[in-house]
Amino acid sequence: MLEQAEPERVKQYIWIASIALLVIAGIKLLSIGSRPKDLPPGPPTLPVIGNLHQLPKKNIHVTYQKWAKEYGPMFSLKLGDSTTVVLADGYVIRELVDLRGGNYAHRPNLWVRELFDDSRIIMRGYDDLWKLERKMYHASLNINVAKRYLPYQELEFLQMIHDTIQKPDDFVDHIGRATGSFAASMTYGFRLPDKDSDLTHEMLHNSHGFFTCVMKSQLFDYYPFLRNVLKLFPQSWNPLAKEALQAYESERNVFAKSWKVAQEGSLPCFAKDIAQAREKAVAAGDEGLFTEHAAQYIAGISFEGGADTTRYTLHGLYKALTMFPDAQRKGQAEIDTICDAETFPMGHHIKDFRYINQIAKENIRWMPTAINGAIPHAALKEDHYRGFRIPQGANIVLAVWSANNDDKDFPNARDFIPERHPAESSLFESMHVATNTLLLAIARILWAFDITYAKDENGNEIPIERDAFVGGLAAAPAPFKHVVQSTPIGREQSG
Fold it and tell me: Cα–Cα distance between 240 and 29 in angstroms, integer?
């Protein structure tokens, strides 16, 4: 009898253990998506998915602004099995990202990181290579180095004005060519003189593959444990992995080819500065992480940042000047005191720009490119702020749109009011190349053009949707109709 009872007892134990495991697994599964009580507040969650069902397909910056008003300047979201803390106030952003920068310079462990060999600085954490790259970028942007690039800027924005006079409806393409060509000249020592050339298209669209892969693979960032499931199958079965590897190979080839051209060229450029720094490191036996691949990516990311950000910012400028003609007239009035029919705005005039400086600051605030901070930051270690816990590894989103449109800091925030900013302070602290680029471009646009609303067949102004954006990680104004007309001075000098 005892011998017969023993197997039955074993079956009971197995059954009880199985039920217990299922209960534990169920509890664990249901805990995914829930918000611990010590996290910053946020919208209600659902089991497993958290707040994923509440994310809009577009214009998430508007949703962030709504939630900030409801839950405060720092709120949290549970996106699947991940935690995101959104900072929606300028003061909070400065308190954490600036004053505690060592903890928030980290980046999320994106699924595409491994496929791109951790090559991009915005994918990596606060490591030694990150510090090296930052050092190189700061060296390339200081005030002394910035002076040598002024002739490049003057040339590209002269062609931009000429091209816009010839084909004003293509102003967005002319901006893109000019900013891309300057970025190529500064980084690699060669120009992009034709907006329709294969080279221009290749250079300006090289980063699109990476950012597309980031957006498509978000499921594996929301539920990191799914990455282990993927590893059970050959990588060739995963279409996202194949797409990412193809994008990585494409951008790597573009960066390597551009690097080679730069080293063989005669003009001074950032890529040559990087190569010289690397040669010194190799000669000293201290190559370490400073491989040629790393050097090529330091240059390549510098090009992308210089080309895309300024292009979208100047696109927003045209929209602002159309909708707020008073700011346009005041900017032109300042240009008239500095430049006349015989004087085209040049690099040496930049120090005299005061209202132009205010226009630039307001332009960045009113129509930000990194509308949601682009790629999120991440908390390197657990932190506490205002009585709330920020978990280690939490994604940190900078809700730039919300911060820039906070009425307590910027009354009548959706009005374009350059006077709200000081005229004397620097546009970009310690980023002199970017400052010169934006100020010179704005000055030449104001000098050369009157920008007004387009009109329909009845002579009525065609309205512009003020807050319409396109894009994802980097935002640009949605297409709008306006008229770009040469001023008498602009025609005389650039026609």
Answer: 26
